[in-house]
User: Fold these one by one.
Assistant:
Number 1:
Amino acid sequence: MSTRAERIRAWLATQTLPASARDVLLGIEPRGDINAFCSVLAQMEKAGTVQAGKVGNRRYYVIGDPPKPKAPRPPGPARTRKPMTGRANRLREFLQQHDRGFTVAELRAAVDPRATSNQVSASLHTLVKQKHAHRAIQGRLACFGRTAALAQAQLAAEVAGERAAAPTPKPVRQAPAPKAKAGPKSRTKRPASSAPKAARTRPAAPPTRDLPRALPSPPPPSPAARAAIDASARTTPRGRPAPVSCGLDGVSERQRQASDRIAADIAAFEAKGGRIQRLGPTQFFTRIGMEAANHVPPRAPRTGTTDLDD
């Protein structure tokens, strides 16, 4: 089955007009992923197998140069593995010199005490992956050796030692027997003491004060006093308001002062030759009332004057 790039190039070769990425998608895989087609077209444009031009914000593609065949790689020297240096090399040499297995803690203490257990474990994992060491695991315990037999023998010894050094299990404590439920508590009376109880003494009441009695009511009036009171009540006139002797009686002092001031101003105005005309009730409203009673239409007002009287 041809690759997607080959199918895109074959489809573009049949087109006479440039096509967008969506046109390519609909022409080859209508249900494909547009992002995958855009990625393939970008790689083909970079390789020169298609040519692209941008119109606005959209790119259009046409067929380009044919793909160039990959040149065969010239034969070179065989790749050799770099010699191991550092912690991994020292661990490999240490395991080759001993005919027994070791734990991670023993290897760390013998080879690189300054390294952490995780660093030593990572170096041993690299050695096991490269077949320079072998590992035996049981649970959380792991042993490493030059051969698998040495690692397995050391693991069996470590497991046996852990079982021998395991502390004896503590005896299981038995649950205490349930206590019998006690009956209702009985109230015990205190034994009566033989000594007589001391009588309680109350505090003395405060001395009482003699309250004065109510004064006696006066005696009723005699018939002679009652007759004198009735005679004085009949002869005494009832109080009446004083007759008004002036038009300003009952007026406040402020109003009286205002009236005096107005009278003085009028007198001064007349002394200077002024004349005051006292008007009575106007005849305008009287005439209107008479015309309304006699059913006479009102006269039209005269123009050019503001006098309402005839």
Note: The longest strand covers residues 50-55.
Number 2:
Amino acid sequence: MPAPASSLPRIALVAVLAGAVMVAAPLAAIASQGLDPFDRLDALMLALAGLVVAGWGGYRLGARPLLRRDIALHLDEAGVTLQGADSGARLLWPDLARVELAWWEIVPPYVEDAEHLPVLRLVAHDDHAIAVNGAGVVSGQLARAFGISPPAAARTAVVGHGGLGALQQVLDWVGSHQPDVPVEVGAPPAL
């Protein structure tokens, strides 16, 4: 299922490139031409502005959203496996209390801008019945942000808008192959 955040913000790449040109061109002019003191000051101010633009772009590239990797979900007759960016969870069908699809407001640093996104939750009868793989930093942060346990966060998938078709397929599969598992679907918010 597709991640809600893009991998690299284009505006940040443009800012880094434009800032680099704004720094390099005036410095090259200072080094290669005999500029008078006022022109040299103008060139240094332009280079300083370029440094600010490039720094902002670099900051945006370094502060990328946490939810930028796709999620793998595998359903079979024994159970369900959810593999996120830094952790995964396996849950057998008898241990699954319900499947929830809700719309939550997801805010930075998880996505670039705050937005309502579909969230698939595999809710267990008991969190101790969950086999969690990996010590997920992102899952731990999601657990604190959403007020749920870390194993519950490992079974929670925030999906991009492009994944609505895949989410519908998951819900259809659960409904046809595991009819004893309740499926709760929330309506998207009216914004």
Note: The two ends are 24 Å apart (CA to CA).
Number 3:
Amino acid sequence: MNLAATDQSLGELNDLSSIELQPLPVEVKVPVAVSCIKPEQLPAKPDYESLKDNDNTPDGTVVLHITRDFAKSLPYQQRLEAIVDVCK
């Protein structure tokens, strides 16, 4: 066994500066928010009369509009709550 040759090859192994290292690919999982509600699942928003221009409308009529709007809003709210409950 030639010790000089062995010492020379070990010296080459210790000289790591000449070795070009390539980075290894790394898989990274990134959490992404995904909506559990599809747009086609959303109910149509009611047409609220009380949100329209009521500047010249008598107070009693405005109160009736608010009462009707409240009645329209209940089924809409219930459907929205049911859709949101699925996401919990």
Note: The two ends are 73 Å apart (CA to CA).
